Amino acid sequence: MKLSNNALQSNNPSVEIWADSVSLQPFTKEEWRSHQDNNIEKVRKSRVRFHVSNANETALEGAKVVIKQTKANFPFGCGMNQHILTNGDYRDWFVSRFKYTTFTNQMKWYSTEIIQGQENYTISDAMLKFTKENGICVRGHNIFWDDEKYQPEWVKSLSPDELREAAAKRIKSVVTRYKGELIAWDVVNENVHFHFYEDKLGENASELYYLRAYELDPTTTLFMNEYNTIEYSGDKVASPANYFNKLNEILQSPEASEMSFAIGLQCHFGSGRPNLAYMRSGLDFLGQIGFPIWLTETSVDPQPKQAEYFEEILREGYSHPAVKGIIMFAGPAQAGFNTTLLADENFKTTPTGKVVDKLISEWGIGPYTAIADHRGIVDIALHYGEYDVTVTHPLTQHSEKLNISVGKEFSHKNVKMHA
């Protein structure tokens, strides 16, 4: 499969492009936020009308309608580590908030095969059991990491033939073990910045491992996961254009056309105000390719305005139509998180944690309460997802309960009260 993006680049170096009468002016913070909110209304929500009537179909003015989301359509999750197995407070904190996660280190090769030939999946197996019991979806992270310093120590000294054999065993072991259990795999992590496998095994190493992962588990979405593609304009190595070029290399074979593929952007922001304009331009560029985009490891370094900046980053991601999921690499101090801290050592919510809780509520949980007007009508905008709805008669207090699924096509629901 060969990707093209002719709207963004020309293959003819002799062509010059000129722009006439260009005027640039900055957005205010309020204008930027307004654009985000307008996008959210367009791409994440539907206007829903409830029409409440008596059994004889006369309008029931004053009926109370309470709406609570039971399942979000947009995956908004958080990284998880092994402390979830032993810390009850951490378990309670996590389960009350998130239905999507990525294990931060526990599936990586250096965690599962510390000594050559001695595989140990005890921790990742236990964590996966916990997530299944609590209805939490897991992104697999990762099969390989292209940075030399993050190889198992014994891997670094292997000859090319030995590495090829060890890597073949690794990918077969981990992918078949978790086949059908994960929603995604980061196959060759950070292979725009680094090229350990390409240097040892040939320039098409990443391509071959994506094809092999697809062969072993054809139903799981395969990600190319990279940092600084949308965070920092000064890192030219992993620019959106270079990300696109690497993606093209991976997907050049005809066999790749059947692959379920997605774009993973880690979204680790350092100190200082985030460059949201660069972030948006990168999302615009990569969004035109047509693959879903996830922000896979979203974080921001500690600083006085950390909470404010983290909210800006999360809102920018959620409001972009090409972004289909967000995972934060953040958490409580008791689990060892110290960069983007959401709860302190006593599980008191930090300012950054309050931002996350606010957005979880704002993006759908509710509950929302409304009163039917004289026509028996309640109009409300709801985020895509599954909802429990309770409608209560204003005089008898009799209640009717229903479940609805809100998406692009949902617009109207009739509710008849029989008491």
TrEMBL record:
| Keywords noted in UniProt | Carbohydrate metabolism, Hydrolase, Polysaccharide degradation
What range(s) does the GH10 domain occupy? 61-359
Presence of keyword Hydrolase = yes
Q: Origin, by domain of life?
A: Eukaryota
> Can you cite a GO biological process for this protein?
polysaccharide catabolic process
Family named by the database record: Belongs to the glycosyl hydrolase 10 (cellulase F) family.
Give the protein's recorded name: GH10 domain-containing protein
Its organism's taxonomic lineage begins at: Eukaryota, Viridiplantae, Streptophyta, Embryophyta, Tracheophyta
